[in-house]
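Researcher: Re-running this chain for the archive, since the previous output was lost when a drive failed. Same request as before.
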Amino acid sequence: MTPAIAYWEKLHFLNFDVLIIGSGIVGLSAAIALKEKQPALNIAVLERGLIPSGASTKNAGFACFGSVSELIEQEKSCGTDGLHQLIESRWKGLLKLRRLLGDEAIAYEDYGGYELFRPAEKELSSVCLSKISYFNALIKDIVSEPDTFRTANHQIADFGFNGVDTLIVNEYEAQIDSGRMMRAMLKKAGEAGILIFNNCKVTSFEQSDTGYTVCTADGNFACRKLLLCTNAFAKELVPELDIVPGRGQVIVTRPVPGLKLKGTFHYDKGYYYFRNVDNRVLLGGGRHLDFAAEQTTEFGSTAVVQNALLNLLNEVILPGAAFEIEQSWSGIMAFGNSITPIVKELGNGVFCALRCNGMGIAIGNQTGCDAAELLLKKM
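Model: Regenerated structure tokens:
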């Protein structure tokens, strides 16, 4: 039998000014921003997993704002002005994240980012090469540098690639340790007096006389304002949201002796991505091979994607090298008809900050801060 709730528990552990659902980068950023603006607010975060369980600790740790081929596709969707604004928000978001936590805490390494092309993608590589000066001019006022993108074919052999004939480098792309980032953010949230309840999955919420009742398997919470930051999982609570889940499958090798790789790498319009980490190769992507199967909130893997990742390792990234796969996992991203995040009030006192479109490292912190600003206007 479940024990009755004590007076002290109801007063101090189940009743809050603001409840945030989701302890990923967006949810914790929102909580920290709220505390910075109004320290007296009583705030708690409810997390369904033992640790942040969507994508914040499962991503590849790319501190990027888009490869040339990705920017070409995104400009088709949002226009030139929209793309400029999007890149600016990603760049400023990265700077904001670094200021909040510090480069050492997130293991920030500015090795550069590269986009590679094989001979079969000659048409795509030609288009991307022709766009280098265009995008350099477009973002010059954002990064304050004239030549962000340039060709780097002379480095192909240095990285040990096979069957790659074109390489474009972004000098200002970097990599981070996503686990260290989230631990630093959890530490900052704790220091601010924000309570985090783990293994606490929200099943529903409903309006009450004083705000909202938030229901979980272990009991109900009360709050004045509610903020949803569960990305693709938010559709379980608000089905009408413009969100489509996207599962990203990832593998990492055991240490590879003499590994030549250093940096973050994009391939096939960003649908594949890989990097060095602790003398290993981390490789993810392939959801475009079966979009329907990967539009899921179920963690796991599929043979078609896993085989494609292994083939890329064998044929291009580590040709002729002996390697073993040490781990594999998946993370759940959120996409939609727009490539900008959803930050809005859903109803009277219910807000959301969702849909980072695979760019959570770049825009997650700013998205959470934007939600905090919106919520404070209604306190």
